[in-house]
Write a structure and sequence with these properties.
82 residues, 77% helix, Large ribosomal subunit protein uL29, Ribosomal_uL29_CS
């Protein structure tokens, strides 16, 4: 997670991997907020990055829920494009 997650990368992941990544990101956000509250946080930009990663994961999950994008469609598009 050092470079951050992109929506395209997330769309190719199965649902269980998304749930795992979401859980990890939420735990990291909790730890970062705790460090910020105690004055131990050195990288404030990481807070913003983790929040955006969480939002991207939720967006991809919601797209699947609404049927906007499915994993199979993304896999087929990825093979065509590259």
């Amino acid at each position: 997670m050092a470079k951050g997650l992109t929506a395209d990368e997330l769309r190719t992941e199965p649902e269980d991997v998304l749930v795992t990544k979401l859980k990890e990101a939420k735990e990291e956000l909790f730890n970062l907020r705790f460090q910020a509250a105690t004055g131990q946080l050195e990288s404030h930009g990481r807070l913003r990055t983790v929040k955006r990663e969480i939002a991207r994961i939720y967006t991809v999950m919601r797209e699947r829920e609404l049927g906007i994008v499915t994993v199979a469609e993304d896999a087929a598009e990825g093979k065509d494009n590259g």
